[in-house]
Amino acid sequence: ELNGAVTIVVLGASGDLAKKKTYPALFGLFKNGFLPSNTHIVGYARSKMSQEEYLDRVTQYIKLQNDEDKAKLQQFKNINTYQSGQYDQAESWIQLNNLLEANEMERHLGSPKDKNRVFYMALPPSVFIPVAQGIKQHVYHAEGINRLVVEKPFGRDTESSNELGDALGALFKEEDIYRIDHYLGKEMVKNVMNLRFANIFFAHAWDRQFIDTVQITFKEPFGTEGRGGYFDDFGIIRDVMQNHLLQVLTLIAMERPISTDSEAIRDEKVKVLKCIQPIKMNDALLGQYVSNQEGKPGYLDDDSLKNKASQTPTFAALALFIENERWEGVPFVLKAGKALNEAKVEVRIQFKNVPGNLYDDTARNELVIRIQPKESVYMKFNSKQPGLSYQTIQTDLDLSYHDRYTDLAIPDAYESLILDVLRNDHSNFVRDDELEASWKIFTPLLHAIDDPKQKLPLVTYPYGSRGPQELNEFIEKFGYDRSNTT
Ligand code: BG6
């Protein structure tokens, strides 16, 4: 429905996100022929730079795999233009609009219907509203298609998120807004619905009768080095849990949508989110990393951190409960931390013990969805020890993508999501009511953490460790049998 023509305006084109994610993704789509044939990309930012400097920046993070890529990069450069301007001045926006108009004419897009514009805001939240206003007033083309792509943070609690939502909602229709949560573009996250709803045996064992606990884990092996300024304002819960991990939880827990239509999917997500109780202080374990023996710095040692007595958690384990017929009493434990021993994001669905205990040492079934690295799905199950023994052993049914799909290059999450924007598919974007429901779950806990009078306990863990020692006890308390882990 874009009629083969679109102009993608990357706002914040000289920023980190644009360089690391947006442009490499646009190039990936371009080289594989997924951008409409008549596409132009306009980078917009405050920095003054020549077209050449801009192109250098744009290509800095693009990895070329072969000579063909080199040639494609040249073509890609030809569809890119840069324009500098302010975020809060009408005349800057008018100039941008003039540039777009002239460029559209050159590309023979004279008819208003062909003026399709995607505005990608790779911007800090402080300028979200002025930019959206500037665009709406001066760069929006009422007769064409206008889409606004927004990146988190969407506020810092229910109230601020609602304020931002109201301000954006006054300017753009909900159907034209695409709130990115890049976890929704990851291959294994996109796979959750297929796994659940295309396999009859999962469909029938997917509830409190069979499942004991669900663990969703995010581990990063590096600290906030150099990003302490941003991070300290947000903390690990706002940074990855209220959004990325909660989205994964939602896909695991929601009911079957009536179809794969984006609104049907998002309706179900909202419903299940509304059944989740706000997290209680007792169901939270908060931690912060400290230096280790090898001399890796602690969180408070980071030069970019202003508050040297910061209580901001860099680690959290939170138990969430869904009060509905399917899930009552099943803890969903979200765990996330910076500066841990490894990079790993995965979901572990641990089933109940087999009743009757016919065999000794029967381990629990456990379905593991490894989101990264090395995407895989495996089910731990019990089988006879091969040979003359009758002993039961634990083994697994394993679908490892790197073994099974050897020729497959898994696209980056951003490629998948930008393509969805072009195709007008909202399934993997966060709807306004979904955002509100998700903040409600976290806001009371976040306010308690932010309130110095409440002094919530904060445990420490050394840089590069598995997390705070208290974690084992915490996950056992919420039903996870650790002897099962391999
Ligand atoms: C971002 C967070 O949203 O997600 C970062 O702000 C985090 O702190 C990142 O590192 C993780 O994304 P990925 O795709 O690298 O797992």
Write up this protein.
This protein has 486 residues and is α/β, with parallel strands linked by helices. Helix content is 37%, strand content 21%. A hairpin with a 3-residue loop joins strand 12 (366-372) and strand 13 (376-384). The longest helix is centred in the middle third of the chain and has 26 residues, at 228-253. Bound molecules: 6-O-phosphono-beta-D-glucopyranose. Pfam families: G6PD_C (PF02781), G6PD_N (PF00479). Its EC number is 1.1.1.49. Pathway: Carbohydrate degradation; pentose phosphate pathway; D-ribulose 5-phosphate from D-glucose 6-phosphate (oxidative stage): step 1/3.
Helix/strand structural class: alpha/beta
The distinct bound ligands, ions and cofactors come out as:
6-O-phosphono-beta-D-glucopyranose
Low-confidence stretches: none
**Count of runs of 4 or more consecutive helical residues:** 14
**Looking at the structure, what is the overall shape?**
globular
Average pLDDT level: 94
Number of strands: 15
Strand content: 15-25%
- What spatial order of strands do you see in the largest sheet? 14-13-12-11-7-10-9-8-15
* Percentage of residues in helical conformation: 25-40%
Q: Tell me which oligomeric state these chains represent.
A: single chain
Q: What order do the helices and strands follow?
A: EHEHHEHEHEHEHHEHHEEEEEEEHHHEH
How far from one another are the termini?
48 Å
